[in-house]
Specification:
alpha+beta, about 190 residues, Gyrase A, domain 2, single chain
């Protein structure tokens, strides 16, 4: 078969076919660009929603953490109180025996007027005494320390509680705070 078409027409048909192919490629590129844009937009929306969810989760966990910190503080305070009670129970300290032991340590001219337990682990016992001389507070402190019952005894206050007609003090009141000794320090002091 002989091709009798003029060369210009042949060129036009060739370029027409190329134009159709190029138009198809352009449509394919446009469809691909729209699909990629859609994927990117969906990804950005997904990231934003995840970011918002994470920010809400973080704020929720921060508020929970604040509540837990308050609970932790309360638990620590309760733990200190329980430790003091446990230490007293482990050493089998009874008030009647403690009164006898402290009474035996009182210098002459002094009276035990009060004992009170506090929840403080550092100074759980407060001792109040009436004294006929101010210097007996220091003697009482030394007697309590030497007894081995206490690891630390501090004089908190010594006040005048009674005076004579001429204004001289005749009776004093002393307040001492004491920390119970550990079992190991009791045995060391006894040796």
């Amino acid at each position: 078969m002989i091709n009798l078409m003029p060369p210009n027409l042949k060129k036009d048909i060739l370029y027409a076919r190329r134009n159709v192919t190029l138009a198809q490629y352009c449509v394919l590129v446009a469809i691909t660009a729209v699909a990629l844009t859609g994927v990117m937009v969906y990804g950005i929306m997904l990231i934003n929603s995840d970011q918002n969810a994470l920010e809400e989760s973080i704020s929720s966990k921060k508020s929970t953490l604040e509540l837990l910190k308050k609970d932790e503080t309360e638990a620590n305070n309760l733990s200190k109180t329980i430790d003091t009670i446990n230490a007293l129970l482990n050493r089998e300290v009874s008030f009647s025996k403690l009164l006898q032991d402290i009474g035996a340590l009182m210098p002459e001219g002094t009276k035990l007027t009060g004992l009170s337990l506090a929840s403080s682990k550092d100074q759980p016992l407060t001792i109040t005494a009436a004294l006929n001389e101010q210097k007996k507070a220091a003697i009482l402190q030394q007697n309590l320390l030497k007894s081995g019952l206490f690891s630390a005894v501090d004089i908190q206050a010594v006040n005048t509680s009674a005076t004579a007609e001429d204004g001289t003090p005749t009776e004093f009141s002393a307040q001492l705070s004491a920390k119970f000794a550990d079992e190991s320090s009791k045995t060391e002091k006894k040796q």
